[in-house]
Amino acid sequence: MNHPAEMKLHRxxxxxxxxxxxxxxxxxxxIGSDIMDALRRQFxxxxxxxxxxxxxxxxxxxxxxxxxxxxxxxxxxxxNNFVMNMMFGDVVEAIFKGLLDExxxxxxxxxxxxxxxxxxxxxxxxxxxxxxxxxDDIKSASDWSYRNKFESYDTLAAGDGFGYIGQxxxxxxxxxxxxxxxxxVNKGNGKFKYVPAxxxxxxxxxxxxxxxxxxxxxxxxxxxFEPEQETFxxxxxxxxxxxxxxxxxxxxxxxxxxxxxxxxAKSKAKFPKMVQYIEYNAEQxx
Length: 286
Fold this sequence. Notes:
- This protein is of the alpha+beta class.
- 38% of the residues lie in helices and 21% in strands.
- Strands 3-4-5-6 form a 4-stranded mixed β-sheet. The protein has a 4-stranded antiparallel β-sheet with strand order 7-8-10-9, with no helix packed on it.
- A hairpin with a 2-residue loop joins β7 (228-232) and β8 (235-241).
- α2 (25-42) runs antiparallel to α4, α3 runs parallel beside α8 (202-217) and α7 packs across α8.
- 30% of the residues are buried.
- The mean pLDDT is 94.
């Protein structure tokens, strides 16, 4: 375990599984109130606001942010499970904080903060919790992300397409506290763990944020990622696929007009997985 609070929470949840833990009416009401606030926020019916950099997006690739500011109409429509997925995160956070309360873990609850940059830019955000003098984020993750992406700080840094590291660094700078880490809950099976931000360089991340502000303001669009050479069983297929960092980008079809989806080249599976290709040669695919 990577955090002292993990032991308290594991002990409490083990007792709960064996019918030995209770939960107070006060905490039940607090969890319920937080979830109701989330429902109002997610289903508020508000018109889409004008783009602005926020702590929750400022760590993401600048190419995505550029499109959001300059060409928002080019985004793919949100899927019908988008709000449900956001609600999963809200509900997990509300319940997790309540469990921390009942496990006897002391923490400071969410607060709005402002990150002030050297050029006068102000970036707003709301951190999740502060524990032992460090700011932490609470994340819900798929089983794959829980086991691979959130395996350690290094694995997160290797594929941080959602900008979690920059987000945490921004909170730390804005609050003048240490960057703690991430409490991660597996949406698939309910497991949880703490991933410390032990490799983070807060000053370096703030420098990146300052460069992001400059890049997003420019009229010129610059891609952050290039296509990847496709391999099958470690052999090149001759095709090029969408960069893994672009997989969840809402602007991938605009950025790559020739993007097309086909069954994985060379695969002999009965139902090959679908792959997003930027360059696809049908003759080489079989």
